[in-house]
Amino acid sequence: MKEKRFVLLGILLAAIGMLLKDSEMSLWDYSLMLVFGHTIWIQSSIGYNILPGRKTNIFFGWGHHLPIHDPIKILGVQWVKDFHIWEPDGKVVQQKISEDIEEGHFPYFSYECKKEGTYRLASYVPTGYYSIYLDKNDNWHHYVKPLDTLDQEKEVKKMLISLKYWEWTKAIMTVGKPDDNALKPVGQEMEIMLDKNPVEYRSGDTVHFTVLKDGKPLTEPGGSFYAQDQGHSPGFDDFVYDAVPLNEDGTGSFEITRPAVWYLKVHWGYPAPKEYEDKCWIFGYMVSLTFEVDTDAGVKNPSYNL
Fold first, then answer.
1. 90: left (phi over 0), alpha (psi -120 to 50) or beta
2. Residue 251 pLDDT more than 90?
3. What angle do CA 80, 235, 108 make, to 5 degrees?
4. What gap in Å lies between CA 266 and CA 30, rounded to an integer?
């Protein structure tokens, strides 16, 4: 059954790929193609608005299905090399992802929330190449090297997508009393900035955000955003807000439909420069943010001692 679903998905993606590649593609189309690639996000086991003194486990979601999808060993070894925590007092803690992970386990680390205030957690996926193609025997392949290392005439029947990617992720976590650290960028090449500390949001509020590229609002066309509350759906990229174009000034907005942990991501892409045409089709940039929206009652003390 799993193989059948994969084949059907491949047929659908191939049809989209042929339509896009063989027609005049808009910049928004390039952004749409990035949907096929995995996205990384940061998870905290006890949420993102936490009482002082509690311990949480930090780990990564990776893929298309919330809350985790592919918590595989290779994530810590091949994709995510390190992780940074900006503590409320300005101290930056660097965590290395261990390569000594047992088979079947996923990389995580425990963190005790001793300091009161707002934390920013951030990581990234090192730049690389990613392609999906159909071979001469009608089998799908995921290829993580430049196209000029692949014998396309011999191996490839149809190329679905090919990109060079850049990817960053961030989460905002508040312990006890919030502060204005949520409004300070951590300096990622591409970064999502909210209009307020997430502890101030409630169901029915509108989230206003700005996407920064190299520290300035992303004003180039072709960006789109996706958002959903974790618990809305475990389906494949089943977003509440799906592929919504960014405004010309790099901003976007959406309404919070319910209290939950929210996941927001932005895709932006454009045709690969001429010197990269033999290596990939597009340059793709992806950035994500996770944060928590509480109920009106706020964070409650647990009835048990952890």
1. left
2. yes
3. 25
4. 13
As a whole number of angstroms, the distance between CA 240 and CA 221 comes to: 23
Residue 303 falls inside a structural domain? no
Does residue 185 have a cis peptide bond before it, meaning omega lies within 30 degrees of 0?
Answer: no
Per-residue tokens: 160: 């679905």
**Averaged pLDDT of the chain:** 80
User: How would you list the strands of the sheet with 108-112, edge to edge?
Assistant: 39-44, 55-63, 108-112
Q: Tokens in use for 203?
A: 């169901």
Domain hosting residue 221, numbered range: 2-293
Residue 155 banded pLDDT, cuts 50, 70, 90: very high
Taking only the tens place, the pLDDT of each residue in 88-134 is 999 999 877 666 666 656 667 788 889 999 999 998 888 889 888 99
Q: How many domains does the chain have?
A: 1
End-to-end CA distance of the chain: 41
From residue 68, how far is each of 64, 84, 159, 267 by CA, in Å?
Answer: 8, 20, 28, 19
Q: How confident is the model at residue 68 (pLDDT cuts 50, 70, 90)?
A: low
Let me know if residue 245 belongs to a domain: yes
Query: Rounded to an integer, what is the distance from CA 212 to the centroid of its chain?
Result: 15
Does any domain span residue 81?
yes
Whether 278 shows a pLDDT value over 90: the answer reads: yes
